[in-house]
């Protein structure tokens, strides 16, 4: 049912648009793209996300994490700020969008939880540090260099004589205004004040530092002429961004929906965010995602419907013809905008706490952290390796099944607990052999499977083989199936004609 936007939706949309314009330019620079691509990403994608999304507050657009992932995926195969790079960024956005739409259509929104919390903790903190080192050259007024986190950091620290004092003053002042504004009130326009002040001061006192520079102010146009021959190269990075970039907006939208007692659908949000990225691709922008800070501003401003996000996109679209007003904005101010957005993501507390509670998971988190720093800017590869390490650790732990044996009056009772699958089934077999060697006088074997959470096909085959071998050794066998029902049905199919004799159902 169509409804007109409320006054609060207009206020929320305007509040977000005022900070989104400078953020869009800053995040485009972080992604290795011209300012125009950042502004394009802040227009039509927001309108499309509002049409297909689920949350009335979630604000879509350029975000820091998606921008650095874009830089990492593309900088290894093309030079930033070139026409080829811009085309591949648009194709990457299309792949991200297509992936999210497909996930949403098959209602597989739960896939976002495939990344364990330790992996996300290690990756997010390290990625934030990587982003800070990418902004350090602009903040200190030195030439940027390529390389990983450590080389960038050392290059800045070893060039103090080249630091631009006026640029540092501009950047530090902007950072203080933005941080103070956030602490004063979520709706305080600290970013807007820092940008306006930076432009005015630059016009009066030339800080002799780089500025945004002039750029085309045309409206975005539609085009399907993307570098489709690079699709295969960008597929894996696109899938990674589709999943990683959705984790934060999903958490935001879910939390706000719960606190407001309103419905929310992860799958529908996947479709909304996917459609937004497809739109970003066809207008020549780059991957977009949900923003925590802008979503909280929209929520605090009292937004009542998805109109707030659409109005933000419309307002940025209306700003494009005069966007060159930002051309004299000093680069240190842009760096301050990004730094203020990512420094809250640096959280060593959970990593340290994890070290005290789970050594295995702490190893996964810290390994992901170090890999992200070492492999930067290819942090997408670091995340992929971290996820793989998390799966390996999980399988290693699941391979150890706990079997409780007991022996009374010629009856051997085995009670396995955990998950019986192809990796852990051998443990049950070995325990039976050990116990039979201890009790050669045993006449009956009881396998109580009620402590198992799941049984796969290999596990069921092993149970059947154990039962047959025990019978051949002269033991009476009784198998007590457990839960869930799937395990009982699987055992009946595997045991076949032996079900009535061995299974106690």
Automatic annotation (TrEMBL):
GO cellular component: membrane
Alphabetic keyword roster: Membrane, Transmembrane, Transmembrane helix
Compartmental location: Membrane
Main localization category: membrane
Topology in membrane: Multi-pass membrane protein
Top-rank lineage group of the source organism: Bacteria
TM ranges: 36-53, 85-106, 118-142, 162-179, 186-205, 234-258, 270-287, 307-326, 333-352, 364-396
InterPro entries in the cross-refs: SLC26A/SulP_dom, SLC26A/SulP_fam, STAS_dom, STAS_dom_sf
STAS domain boundaries: 401-505
GO biological process, one term: transmembrane transport
Record bears the keyword Protease: no
Name of the molecule in the record: High affinity sulfate transporter
Source organism of this protein record: marine gamma proteobacterium HTCC2143
């Amino acid at each position: 049912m169509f409804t007109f936007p409320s006054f609060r939706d207009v206020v929320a949309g305007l509040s977000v648009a005022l900070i989104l314009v400078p953020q869009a330019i800053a995040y485009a620079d972080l992604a290795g793209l011209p300012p125009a691509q950042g502004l394009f990403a802040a227009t039509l994608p927001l309108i499309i996300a509002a049409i297909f999304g689920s949350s009335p507050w979630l604000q879509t657009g350029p975000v820091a994490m998606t921008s650095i992932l874009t830089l990492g995926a593309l900088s290894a195969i093309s030079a930033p700020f070139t026409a080829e790079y811009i085309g591949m960024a648009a194709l990457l956005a299309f792949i991200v969008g297509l992936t999210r739409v497909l996930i949403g259509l098959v209602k597989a929104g739960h896939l976002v939880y495939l990344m364990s919390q330790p992996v996300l903790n290690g990756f997010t903190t390290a990625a934030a540090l990587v982003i800070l080192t990418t902004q350090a050259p602009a903040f200190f007024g030195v030439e940027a260099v390529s390389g990983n986190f450590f080389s960038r950091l050392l290059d800045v620290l070893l060039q103090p004589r080249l630091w631009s004092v006026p640029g540092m003053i501009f950047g530090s002042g902007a950072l203080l205004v933005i941080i103070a504004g956030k602490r004063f009130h979520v709706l305080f326009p600290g970013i807007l004040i820092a940008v306006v002040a930076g432009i005015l001061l630059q016009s009066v006192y030339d800080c002799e530092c780089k500025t945004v520079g002039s750029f085309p102010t045309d409206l975005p146009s539609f085009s399907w002429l993307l570098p489709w021959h690079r699709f295969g190269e960008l597929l894996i990075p696109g899938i990674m961004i589709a999943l990683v970039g959705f984790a934060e907006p999903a958490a935001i939208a879910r939390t706000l929906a719960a606190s407001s007692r309103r419905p929310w659908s992860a799958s529908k949000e996947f479709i909304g965010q996917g459609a937004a990225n497809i739109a970003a691709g066809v207008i020549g922008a780059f991957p977009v995602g949900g923003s925590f800070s802008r979503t909280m501003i929209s929520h605090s401003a009292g937004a009542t419907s998805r109109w707030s996000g659409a109005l933000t996109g419309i307002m940025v679209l209306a700003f494009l013809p005069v966007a060159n007003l930002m051309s004299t904005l000093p680069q240190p101010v842009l760096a301050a905008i990004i730094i203020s957005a990512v420094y809250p993501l640096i959280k060593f507390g959970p990593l340290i706490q994890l070290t005290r509670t789970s050594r295995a998971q702490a190893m996964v988190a810290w390994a992901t952290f170090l890999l992200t720093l070492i492999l930067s800017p290819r942090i997408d590869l670091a995340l992929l390796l971290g996820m793989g390490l998390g799966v390996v650790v999980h399988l290693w732990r699941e391979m150890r099944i706990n079997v409780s044996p007991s022996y009374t009056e010629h009856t051997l009772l085995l009670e396995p607990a955990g998950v019986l699958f192809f990796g852990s089934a051998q443990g049950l077999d070995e325990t039976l052999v050990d116990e039979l060697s201890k009790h050669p006088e045993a006449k009956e074997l009881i396998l109580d499977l009620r402590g198992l959470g799941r049984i796969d096909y290999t596990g069921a085959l092993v149970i059947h083989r154990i039962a047959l071998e025990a019978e051949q050794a002269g033991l009476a066998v009784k198998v007590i199936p457990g839960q869930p029902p799937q395990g009982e049905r699987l055992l009946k199919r595997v045991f076949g004609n032996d079900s009535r004799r061995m299974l106690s159902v």
